[in-house]
Model the fold of this input.
Amino acid sequence: MSQVTVNEAINQALAEEMRRDPRVLMFGEGVATKRYDLVKEFGQRVRNTPLAEGIIAGTAAGAAATGLRPVVDLLFAQFLCFAMEEIVNSAGKLRYISGGQFSFPLVMMAMTGAGWGVGAQHNHNVESWFVHSPGLKVVMPSTPADFKGLLKAAIRDENPVVFFNDIALLSEAGDIPAGEVVVPIGKAAVRREGKDLTLISYAKTVHTCLKAAGALAELGISAEVIDLRTLKPLDEEAVLKSARKTGRVIVVHEASGMCGVGAEVAAILAEKAFGTLKAPVLRLTGPDAPPPASFPLEQSFVPQQDAIIEAATRLIEFGQTDDLEEPALV
Amino acid sequence: MEFIQKPDSSFAKIITDDSPAALLESMMLVRAYELKLPEIGIKMVCTSVGQEASAVGVMRALCRDDLILTNHRSAGHLLARGADPGRMLAEVMGKSTGYCKGKSGTLHISVKDLGIVLTSTIVGGELSLATGVALSQQQLGRPGIVVCFFGDGAASEGIFHESLNLASVWNLPVLYVLENNQFQAFVHRRETMLTDRMNSWAAPYAVESQTVDGNDVEAVHAAALAAAQKVRTTGRPFLLETYTYRMHGHMEMDDQSYVDRNELAAWAAKDPIDGFKQRLLKQGRLGTDDVAQMEAAVLRKIEQAVAFATSSPYPEFSELTTDVYA
Done:
């Protein structure tokens, strides 16, 4: 075990996979500048590009379909707007359209989330856009070990993977096991076991949930924390298993609520675990507003520990007192 | 690397005959195929009637290792490369025997075995993919250049400029074939740009270019041979503009009410097939019997294609969710 930051974990994954497979290459705006250690080792396989997200993503798709395994860094998630055509229409659909003649093994990385006060055109959690797009996988890790292991799995995957890096986590350090670390795509992790209720989350809010679970324990409430890690394919089994155990679920994420991942989780639970639920499924999410730049405002966009504790307490009381009041949760 | 180790035999069926007779017959096949579509009730289709010389002239100048990207107006490119009109028509009709199992339909047929590697129907989509295909050729040291077909409409998209610039900066072997057919869906090109010949659009990116009469198959063929050779030897991109005319509407349902009748008549007089046929007959390079035989052979092929496609089954419903993920 060694303590490494998320940034270093990403670098380790890239270097190991490029060493393992000569078809892996990486390009994007400033990639060769920021990851010069990779340039030294891999030369032309690590490239800077013009500032043009559409052609970066399209080039990755074309290369993936014809024998390479590109990883591209598109910097901030909002810049994916410039590459939606290439990601959604080409990488996501051309396998199907071609009747399975091509596959698109590529990884598209982008940073997102509150933490740097960069405002709504650099910070906006849009992962659900890609979850909604067929042919794509979507990954959003929360720990250095998962960043490394999931990035390696994403590079080895035969499908296009959109890999979101939560800005607030990039400098966070954590343990990474020695040796080969590959975390399977599509598998959630139980971060803390509990029996009274389940907090389901991903990315930075997993850590908020863990802190809230610690505080809830002091109140005598045992909260389980599930880290989805992969948003598509969603680990339905893990979600259902925990919900059936605790009967109470709160989904917590930074992205806005409507049609977000939390809505999907709630729908799955309503369809497949209704009989075992002891209370309605709650969502704690960002508001329907562009993320602000002002630091305190930006922080208030993200579900906080107090709100989780408050919601958890009300959920436990549900059925014992009156019906759950309309939750003014954010 | 399954794609790279593909046995050469899979490319064997690619027609590379570029004799005058072959060029003429190929153009005739494209025309007959496309005219057959509305005749059998298929009107939601974008045809390239009038542009056959561009497709055939370029395609027959390519090698079997070259990789091709095309677009929604692709029947000419596919047929000139040797695609089976029966499997193409089956695809257009949504049959399981189509090249893409009926999942593409008319708009985005690709045929990996023929080196037609990707087809995007988002205008300009192929331009974003071509650089990636060329990057594969460069990084994996494969023979073969990349040839990307698009029109004046696609060149109006920002991605055209991004693509040429990246191909130039990274020395990517892409032959850009700009089929300037004067129309961008339902709008004449003169409403949307102030340049006439569009080859000048390559210069800002330090990409060499040329414009050729897109209705003269021999001129296109010669220009494409030279351009492809340049891309092969320099490893750099080249833009070839084939200046031509879209004789039919954006799709067959389009009544062309917006089209200048005089302009249409002027271009009809420059029909690439009639013109070339007359030239070959006049110069004694082909006899009237040869032409008659050719026409009969083409019609037979089309009838066989129709029979094959109409008798083919639709895909099983289980195909709805296959091929989504690898």
